[in-house]
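User: Sequence in, structure out. Go.
Assistant: Echoing your sequence, followed by the structure tokens.
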Amino acid sequence: MRKKLKQSFSLFFALVLTFTVILTGCSKEGVKTEEVKQVDSLGTEKSDTKELYTIQVLTRSQVANVVQNSSETPIFKIIKEKFNIEFELIPTSENIKEQLNMMLAGGNYPEIIRLEDQDTVDKYITAGALLPLDPYLDNSPNFKEFYKDSIDLWRLSGGDGKLYNWNIYMPQDLANFPENNDILVRRDVLEEAGWPNILSADDYVKLLGDFIKKHPETDGQKNVGMTAPFGESWGMAGIAPIMYEKGGYLQLANGAVIWNDPDKKFEDMIKNDYTKESFQFFNKLYRAGALDLESFTDKLDQVGEKINSGRALASWYCRWLASGANQGFEKSGKTDLQYILLPIKSPKQIANNEKRTVRLATNRPFDTVAITKNAKYPERIMELVDWIASDEGQILVQSGIEGIHYTRVNGKRVPTEEFKNSVASDPDYWYKQGFSIVDMLGYAAASSKVDGQPYDLLKDVNTTDELLPQGVTDAYKAMGWENSMQWWTDNAEGVTVGVAASVSVNPSTELGALEARITDLRIKYSSQLMMAKSDEEFETIYNTLLEEHGKLQPEKVVDEYNRLYAEGMEELAKMTK
């Protein structure tokens, strides 16, 4: 691992040489040294000199392609001034879970790491790869207060009462974390249909199927219908069956079970009616000629390319890919190709009058962060994480720098015109400034307790809509929406999930291996279900899947999840007495 380190002389040695000269030199290891400024850009006094600590972190390729070192950005220059810590950004591989498993096997994982899903967390804890954070808590008052509703749950997930991790996007509330990863639809499709207030999956099939028959091409390029990144590790396993999440069920992992929140229990995913309807939705799109067949192998980058070019009539789940594309279409005058985020429900969910459930988690295993035993200075990492958990830290990493990214009017943060114009005109501006480049330090989906505003001002719907391209704003107005979040504001119901999100069957056990076989079987049949040639063939394939699924005795896994949940609730009760 390549690092540039900076190290100071001791105070004693400096006094011997001179009181007035700042010394810069090399240690016996040939390490360059540098003194931290006495006052950082936020006005905080600093009296100590610390070695420059360069930490490699894995991040999304779309970030690493823009920023290679965090200190290139204005936000993280301040963090470097304050803590003399910088981050070297390394892009992840296409299959992050596979990469995490390989790094664990080789022992070459980074000093601070994001882990996907509880099963991966369990592997790292079992292998002794993660450092318990308990020794640092006495010096971490911000961390303890900020995450007070989650720390016991994180201890519970460790399995031995120790605290090994924290989660990104904690704490969260419905206003700041409306997980509305539903469906993107191209603007011209909606306009030709008369701006319908569309919701049913069947209506989307008709809408997209009718349009692609009339318009197989746009501007000389072939339209591809609905696109999705099923080629990702979380694609076919996670978002292909995720229609159940649009009703009263929640996705807590991509394995054999789903969470029934009203009844507070785990259920078999593949037997759920809404899971079946998810596959039926894609099958109906396929038979209508409105499903992009490359979706079965496409990764996120390929889906992004199809959205950026406007070839896709719609996209499943990946709402975040539309922002840059929409700005580009606005500039080029092709507003008809812009993508509009809309809600979707299955026919049964509509018939059952299901509320749209949005998970408000107090733990989020999918976004687990931990300090590993490879950390050179874990205490310095924890010092930074503790500061990020303060109001000052959260405002810096989410709102930016006062006077550059926002100003204060009557005590309230207001985005500057420069910030708004730059966000609207440069898709890379966000990362160039240091926003969302090292979220693993802590990135709350909540509002400041000091000024009551979202830490991220873009979570304020008024600010969000002000920054939307005019073509997108016009589309929502044409549909009669007051703002781009109206449907979810009116119809979503926040559900707090605690212990259930920490429950997982140990993958190294017999039941863990069984869950893997159950999940693999579902993935194996998913593409067959989506490409069935008729309703009858779909039912035949589905029944065959259920028969093979039953032979694996999936109830053993479901029962184990519910046993672990009950056990976890008991342990949590003991912790909180």
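User: And one key feature?
Assistant: The CA atoms of residues 166 and 560 lie 25 Å apart.
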